[in-house]
Amino acid sequence: MLEVNYLDWNNALGILGKAYQTGLFALIIGPKGTGKTTLVRKFASQMKKELYSVNFSLRTRESHLIGTKTLDNGEISFVEGILVKSMRDASMLYLDELNAAEADVLLRLDEALDDRRQLVLKEAEGQIVNASSDWFVIATINPLSHVGTKELPPQLLSRFPIRLRLDYPPEETELQIINQHTEIDSSKIDDVKRAIKLAKVLREAAALEELYYSPSLRETIAFAKLLNTGIMSKQAAEIVYANVYDQWGEVEYRKVMDMITSIFGD
Amino acid sequence: MIMRNDVLLEIATFLARRWSGNSKIVIVLSQDTAPISKPDKNQIIVPLINYYPGNDFQKYRQWRVALWYESMRMLYSTKVLSYDHAFGLLLNTIETKRLEILGLREWEGMIKEIIFNESISWLSRPLLNSLYGRHKVVEAFSQYFLTGYLKGELFGSEFDRVKKASDFANQLIEEAIKGGEGTNLIERHIPRLIKILEMDPLTSIPIIAPKTRSGMSLNQSDLLKQIEKAVTTRQKHDDIDKATKNVVEGNDVLREFETLLMESTKTENKGYESLENLGLSIPERMDLDETRIYDIDLIQKIKAAFRDWRTGWIERHDKTGEEFDPESYTEALPKPFLTDFKLSIKTKVAILLDHSSSIEDAELEYKQATIALCEALHYLGIKFAVYAFNTEARKVKCWIVKPPNVKWSVISARRLVQIGASGGTPLAEIYGLLIPVAKSFKPDIMVTLTDGEPSDFEAVREMVLSYRKMGIKMVALGVGRNLNDSVGIAHNLKYLNYEKTLAVSRLQDMPKKVINLLRA
């Protein structure tokens, strides 16, 4: 199994461990780019469980979860979807961005997640699938302000009684996380700290809808990587952080550039 | 060229909130007042850029630095006193240096602009020889303490006092920063400072705007010399010439300034000499707090409701189709069960808000709903204009809250906040006033939000018809206190020749109703 790089700064792994022990499914809530997926991957590798993941979007269909009938050598057979497979294999099921899914998809999911942990496959002659006893499910949702997100129906929310909030980490932690992804030269450490500060400022503005986009951890990591290639800090900040705002007009871009100028200087 | 106030206000609000990390800050633009902060009210008052000397760009640079200082004051100071007596001036001056040191730790890039500001404002500082009386020592202290040098001469013991006071103040700052102390520590020691300077704490200090100060004619070569001096004192640079050139040019801020100027050229009156001639008015007060009519929750909910619309594509689920049978499926041609169609948001909308006295008891909610609607329309990129009417001093007024060609911003919200609910519902008259606007803007839809019956039915009927003849879809939205009430209003409105009448009893539903109208 691939080694997963995750810095557990708010003891999320510990809580997921307790959830697993008690067989209670977990829901992680947080904005994009806060390391939700990495956390789940880390947890699965720690528990030595196979991880099945579904990334939900408007396009995710029931058949992705349940399965479809196929025609093979003139015979119709049923190919199980990821939900059914994970129930049988006692693996870990990761439902990413669950609140981007359509209502009918959620309905089928709800059936499997309730206390009976059971699914009736109307697609396959009413077969009943019972989940293995250590089947475990983790879902993540983005806050409602994110593109394409919907409110999760309350009955589905109640299937995940363990709820974790994963926000952007404190500045020092963010620095450590970046350090795990790319080696930061000691002469560049101050520049990376400035970039973290900049990201924090922009995230605050985006949370209040003063800006349209909120930079994630990926951006600060990208910034550090760019610095390592020899690009000057201010230019790297412009490339990674500012340019994207140009799509909302020159003034928006200039606002972010002003922040960069105020933080970085020359 | 002049920077328009709304453009200035927008950038000031953004910068001050981000620099200070305080998202509640309200910026007040004031004609000729020195910048001052009110930490207890979350308010920063800044002058318009013409307050400062120099060319337009130099003015903007000084204005921006002043805003930065005030933002830092909001962040690090707990008390700001008036500058017009010695005690307050001394406290604020020491605080300025303390927060500059603290601020530069976070906002290192500000140093060039601070140097520029220090140099240009040095030129407008009074010559000490020209000052008489007790405030001469205060001015000398402020000069020496903030920059390390003096303009003009001091005599005998005066300099000793200033030097001693300055050393004491520097020590005080060091102590405060080391010990994590703030304004209180500084304030406790001001009496001692006053004693050193041998002053009276209540000595009044005349405040004069920099550009009107005596002997002030900005000489660019003097400025250059001063910048060079400041660069040498402040920065340990190897290449002083290059550093000086950088400060003089201020390229980073220059591009921002140019962008803001461009934004300011988008004018409001479209070639009309004066909107007053057309009978329209613009609410002018700029010292208002619009945050109370901002209901962030409501705004986010509405934006979330129309999010798919913003991307331009929406999924449509078809309910028709044959029962799925795998065998026939493999034989027959595949039938799509899902189609995407492009939403177009080219509809232009004009919104007219009734501000007659009957909405008085729900005024705040009404305004909040309107703001949420405008925020959502802005978010969706729809071209829209907002007008409102009320009666002031027995005169019917039609207000321009947001003209079609100006971007929605806090300034429009500030306009709305100052329109009070009063008077009757003279709809026909208002429609009459808005005809030139309707002809130039040519909205596709005009939505009138009203809570009662118009004063003159017959006239409204005619007006609505004449608007419809211009190709404008006329819609009326009845805003009632409860379901019965609003249905009643909508029912009455039906007889006024509107193409569509709707009713809304919960104000929070109003934005969605209006936006859905555009979708149809």
Overview in brief:
Chain A is built from eleven helices and nine strands. With 266 residues, chain A is an alpha/beta fold. Chain A folds into two domains: 12-165, Rossmann fold; 171-264.
Mean pLDDT of chain B: 82
- Main sheet: strands, sense, barrel of chain A: 5 strands, parallel
Helix-strand string of chain A: HEHEHEEHEHEEEHEHHHHH
Give the overall average pLDDT of chain A. 88
Give the CA-CA distance, first to last residue of chain A.
45 Å
Cα shape of chain A: elongated
Please, how many helices of chain A? Answer: 11
Reported CATH architecture of the largest domain in chain A: 3-Layer(aba) Sandwich
Features:
heterodimer; A: 266 residues; alpha/beta; Rossmann fold; 2 domains; five-stranded parallel sheet; two-stranded antiparallel ribbon; 9 strands; 44% helix; elongated; B: 520 residues; three-stranded mixed sheet; 19 helices; 12 strands
Description of the molecule:
The complex is a heterodimer of chains A (266) and B (520). In chain A, α1 packs across α2, α9 packs antiparallel against α10 and α10 runs antiparallel to α11. Chain A has eleven helices and nine strands. Chain A is 44% helix and 17% strand. Chain B has two domains: 260 residues, no CATH class; 245 residues, Rossmann fold (3-Layer(aba) Sandwich). In chain B, β11, α18 and β12 form a beta-alpha-beta unit. Helix content of chain B is 49%, strand content 13%. The model of chain B has no long low-confidence stretch (mean pLDDT 82). A seven-stranded mixed β-sheet of chain B has the order 4-9-8-7-10-11-12, with helices on both faces. Chain B has a three-stranded mixed β-sheet with strand order 1-3-2, with helices on one face. The chains are: A alpha/beta (266), B alpha/beta (520). The interface between A and B is large, with 31 and 41 residues.
Tell me the layout of helices and strands.
The complex is a heterodimer of chains A (266) and B (520).
Chain A (H helix, E strand, L loop, with lengths): L11 H11 L3 E4 L6 H12 L3 E5 L6 H5 E6 L2 E6 L1 H8 L2 E5 L6 H11 L4 E4 L5 E4 L5 E6 L12 H4 L4 E4 L5 H11 L7 H19 L9 H12 L4 H10 L7 H15 L2
Parallel strand pairs in A: 1-8, 1-9, 2-5, 5-8
Antiparallel strand pairs in A: 3-4, 6-7
Helix pairs in contact in A: 1-2, 7-8, 7-9, 8-9, 8-11, 9-10, 10-11
Chain B lengths: L4 H16 L5 E5 L5 E3 L4 E5 L8 H21 L9 H21 L4 H13 L11 H13 L9 H22 L4 H15 L22 H15 L5 H10 L1 H14 L15 E2 L14 H10 L1 H5 L1 E5 L8 H6 L6 E5 L6 E6 L8 H17 L4 E9 L2 E8 L7 H8 L9 H15 L3 E6 L6 H13 L3 E7 L3 H11 L6 E5 L5 H10 L1
Parallel strand pairs in B: 1-3, 4-9, 7-8, 7-10, 10-11, 11-12
Antiparallel strand pairs in B: 2-3, 5-6, 8-9
